[in-house]
Amino acid sequence: MSYKIIGDSCTDLTPDLKKDPHFQIIPLILQVGNTQIIDDETFDQKSFLELVKNSSESPKTACPSPELYKEAFECEEDQVFVITLSEHLSGSYNSAVLGKKLYEEEHGKDSKKIAVFGSDSASCGQLNIAVYIQSLCQASLPFEEIEDKVRAYIKSMRTYFVLESLDTLRKNGRLTGLQAFFATALNIKPVMGAESGVIIKLDQARGINKALTRMADIAMKDAGDTRNKVLAIAHCNNPERAEFVKQEMLKRGIFKDIMITETAGVATVYANDGGIIMTL
Q1: PROSITE patterns in the record, alphabetically (predicted)?
Q2: Please, what's the b/e burial string for 192-221 (b: 16 or more CB within 10 A of its CB; e: otherwise)?
Q3: Which of 11, 121, 190, 205 makes a 20 to 30 Å CA pair with 219?
Q4: What tens digit of pLDDT does each residue of 193-208 get?
Q5: Domain 159-279 is found in CATH 3.40.50.150
Q6: Which one has a higher pLDDT value, 194 or 66?
Q7: Residues of CATH 3.30.1180.10 domain(s) within the chain?
Q8: What does CATH list as the number for 3-156?
Q9: What is the per-residue pLDDT across 258-280, written as a single tens digit (0 to 9) for each?
Q10: CATH 3.40.50.10170 region(s) of the chain?
């Protein structure tokens, strides 16, 4: 059986995976003031960060239409797996589900097997899930077994992040139920996580490196035995910081694999310049 793995554009694939024909990215739309940017292969991170820096308005995102997902399902592959941003961060999941419904209404439910997964994460979390799906497809497991295993994987995966600023998340309402954190003058950085896709604060530390080190401590405490786990790290315009996190994690454990990737448009909106996201 042939397969395709579709992610919305918060699925921050590595350069090699972007070249893999099994993967397809559905772009979200970014907006800064009156400027709209399609989050596809033309996205220029440095120009975007400069645009955000010079704008008085907080950047916004718009999820893909159901029609875009439906078009993506019009492919020759027999099995399609979709990975989207957490439902608490975007309407992308709902669009994908509706796109599946539209496709099946037109072609019939038996024409193609389609599974839509809300990642309960973002960025490298979606990458982590995508790589896991591909490993199951390459092992030729039945579609239903892959679906069950991926849903269990999503529940077991943990997401962590340390950002220079939570301002964009706060302004765009992504910190629902969480008091906004203001300690800029003291250089205190919160260590954040996700619980069933909802952003939560885990700890804090003074200075970015101490916060990243604390993030590594928390992640390893949560993870237990990491020898069969994949560590994924995403950075926004700061590969040195991603490497720092990798080395801190290697001090604490052994991993099945480690992937480092760069944030595309959507994750750049929320991570801001210098932000680090990690999943395990």
Answers
A1: DEGV
A2: bbbeebbbeebebbeebebbbbbbbebbbe
A3: 11
A4: 988 888 888 999 999 9
A5: no
A6: 66
A7: 159-279
A8: 3.40.50.10170
A9: 999 999 999 999 898 999 999 99
A10: 3-156
